[in-house]
Amino acid sequence: MSEIVKVEHLKKYFPVQKSFLEQLFARKMSYVKAVDDITFSVKRGEIFTLAGESGCGKTTTGRLIIRLLEPTVGEIYFNGADITKLKGEKLRLLRRKMQIIFQDPYASLNPRMKIVDAVGHPLEIHDLAKGKEKKEIVLEVLEKVGLTPPEQFTNLHPHQLSGGQRQRVALARSIIFNPEFIVADEPVSMIDVSLRTALIDLMLNLRKDLGLTYLFITHDLAVAKYISDRIAIMYLGKIVEMSNKESLFLNPMHPYTQALLSAIPIPNPERKRKRIELTGEVPSAINIPQGCRFHSRCPYKRDECSKKEPRITEVEKEHFVACHFIKS
Amino acid sequence: MPLLKIGSLTVDYRTSRGTIRAVEDVSFSLEKGETLGLVGESGSGKSTLGLSVIRLVPYPGVIVKGHVKIDGKDIVRLPEHELRFIRGRKVAYIFQDPMTSLNPIKKISAHFAELIRTHEPNVKEAKALERAKTVLKDLGIRPERINDYPHQFSGGMRQRIMIGLATALNPDLVIADEPTTALDVIVQAKILDLLESLRNAYGMALILISHDLSIILERCDRVIILYAGHMFEHASSTELHRNPRHPYTQGLLQSIPNIELADQKLAAIPGSPPNMLNLPRGCRFWPRCSYVMKICRTKEPPLIDIGHNHFVRCFKYSRGRAKS
Amino acid sequence: MSKVKIKQSILARLIPRLTSLTKKGPSGWMAILGIIILSALVIMTVIAPWIRPHDPIKTGVGPIRAPPSSQFPMGTNHLGQDMLSRILCGGSIMLQISTLSVLVCFLIGVPLGLFSSYVGGIFDRACSLVIDAIYAFPGLVIAIAIAAMLGPGVVNMALSIAVVYIPSYFRIVRSQVLSIKELTYVEAARASGAKWHTIVFRYIFPNVIPSIVVVATINFADAVLTAAGLTFIGLGVTKDVPDWGWDLTDGRALLSSGTWWVITFPGIMIILLALGFTLIEEGLSELLNPKLQR
User: Which of A130, B11, B236, C262 is deepest in the core (most CB within 10 A)?
Assistant: First the structure.
């Protein structure tokens, strides 16, 4: 399988907003290190998941890859070409090949646009179709995302639809260009439980039918396990563990992954598990701990951990871990 | 006498676009020290049901029928000033959003002092603060942080403080409405552990309201499944997990992923929840049900006792039993 | 389609909209009452040339300072002009000035607010600074200063009033854009390669319109009062046009001699006009509030 997206040493630091006086007297700028040196690649046709708690940098990574945010350092490759510095018309053409779906179906559609425009406007933006022709294409994609019969939806406004339907409209908009790659940022976490599975199945079917590749972003590891091929676990801007899902769930190696997995509720009242307790809370991304950034909460920490930052290394085939004490 | 007994409770929202019957004919009871889970999607009426227990259904909601008895006293008919002895003291409520449930301009100490002294006016301020500090220690928060403001705490810490405030007066019943929905899994597990340990230590009963069936099955003794204001199934969580009877419950269980199962196949429930202003005739689930029969489209199914304290609202189980 | 048919179809579309307002509670009724008052005044001003009993600027059509009577229902002023005719015709200047000033405000304040907040950075800071500086002065004082500089006339008055209200448009648009800009549908438009002007005009601007409408109606009411104030202190239009503002000025001087009718009737008209706009504003601001719609 070839790589469709490759990310190398990607960093995104957001300067901390300061008042005018603080700006005058501060010696050094401080930064929120949202994404702090990550490297990974997504293979064509797979579903690659970035998972982690809020503030771990997964959403920022998705926005960086799709070029909605400018990276501080690092390179992004799409189909082998460096797209980190792409601008103007070339960037606009790239937009047709990579798209994004957002978490909140109530904020992701323009309330003043009818569905036919919400879905079809990107075609006008790129001068690909207008009027009747546009409507034809919109009807086609609405059908693909299961909004049938599509004629019933084109003239509605977003507030006339339910959350699940809106998310399908957002999905329709994202596939209108026949893209190759879609970043799905928590697409089901605000959808009712009974509608979630149908939406996930739809995304899986679209992948098959349209040959899509997804970068799936989620905090819900149970959903991640169901949908993904490979998973990367992020903590404070860094990938701490990355592998195919079977290996990750059968043999989680990083103490953080283990703790995360043991905290997920199991829908079985007769199953009692031992939980791995972590001390304290996630530190601030402005003051990341020295050495291993997880050492302040790690149940297995030793002296070395607070001094040296572990590198992410391939411990087993295709299974990468960033911990001093896990070696192949 | 059970701690809480709810009988044929019906709650309406009288909106300008029509009356929404958010909760209809719900009955159940809860013993001291028991944990009950209310599961449902948005619009199922789970929060309305929780709020009716302390008669705090927001405007334009009205309890139109039924009773809510706490220690035998029907709070539906109680005058407002007597309700104050129930709210906070006997029954405490924990809301979903820990970010907005605390007053941002008041220190944590003030929150505790006000709560304790409202219900026990004889307690001196210093004494109340002493008590608050022991509560904080129970919650795993350093007692000296009592002089901090809410914004100095993280979301998880604030939810702990909310739990502390809810349990400071040793209530008999705590209602937690989606207490962990805004929180990450690790913090969620800690908060649920905390609720469990407080329940074990003080013997209070707990009603846990959530959209997440996994949490409810993991943490509760009994489960009620709500759908469009109706109680669809009511059983102990082990029984519900082993023998789910209602097609909706079966669908839910088949659509939630379980990380412990290899190669799990999820099955989606077709369709979507009904519009509460325009409910289908007959059973509220029939348009989505794969077992739909003729009778389901015309008549509302009754709640049927199928033994082992297991109740189902579905015609599939009405054969050979008293029809209503 | 014939003209009659077009008229009918416009009416057929308007009437259900108006009646639907009545179903939205007190705020709907307020808006309707405001619309009725306003349209009555506009119609009155438009048809005034045909229904007025006398020429409003012709002096000596009756006795001087005659109190209201059957012949002169609103009396006459110190020049013997018929007050009823002057009241019927005198709204035209007010309406012209307020409409023109709202138009100018809209054309300058809205684009400035849109671009300033969308572009951000130094341009935004500079704009905000200038606008805040204008905001810091009392409105009437600025209007007087500018009107004094520009001299009398309808356009000049409208311009001087516009300067006072541009900051309101700028601020409301700017704050709205700042919050809308962060919504994911704007991000989605960027992700589909929309150019910045497409984003501003198709995704942001339509969602700011409700707030602008509300500001515009407040602006109308205030413009009427400011225009009356400017005319009152002698910075308004020339005296050969009937105007409620001038009648106020004359009426004040005549009040000491017990001639109450010259100041009362134009006063009532100005209050009615401002009230009409205010009622519409109050009604609309509640009806257009999305939080109250659900």
Answer: C262
User: Considering only CA atoms, which of B45, B90, B40, B47 is closest in space to residue B69?
Assistant: B90
Identify the residue whose tokens are 């220190």. B107
In whole numbers, what is the pLDDT of chain C averaged over residues? 84
Q: Can you give the length of chain A in residues?
A: 328
Amino acid at site C294: R
The helix or strand, by DSSP H or E, that contains position B192, with its residue range, turns out to be helix B185-202
The conformation of residue A1, written as its DSSP 8-state character, comes to -
pLDDT digits (tens, 9 = 90+) for A276-320: 888 888 888 888 999 999 999 999 988 999 999 999 999 999 999
Kindly state the tokens that stand for C253.
Answer: 């001087």
- Do the Cβ atoms of A116 and A140 come closer than 8 Å? no
Residue C176, phi then psi, degrees to nearest 5: -65, -45
Distance from CA of A78 to the nearest CA of C (A): 15
Which superfamily does CATH assign the domain made up of B4-90+171-317 to? P-loop containing nucleotide triphosphate hydrolases (3.40.50.300)
* ipTM at complex level: 0.88
Residue A242 is predicted with a pLDDT of 97
Q: pTM score, two decimals? A: 0.85
State the number of CA atoms in the 13 A half-sphere of C263 facing the CB: 14
**How remote is the C-alpha of A35 from its chain's centroid?**
13
Domain range enclosing C34: 26-90+259-294
Of chain B, the end-to-end C-alpha distance in Å amounts to: 28
* Rounded distance between C-alpha atoms, residue B226 and residue B229, angstroms: 6
All residues of chain A having their beta carbon less than 8 Å from the beta carbon of residue C188 are 100, 102, 108, 170, 173
Q: Does A194 touch chain B (CB under 8 A)?
A: yes
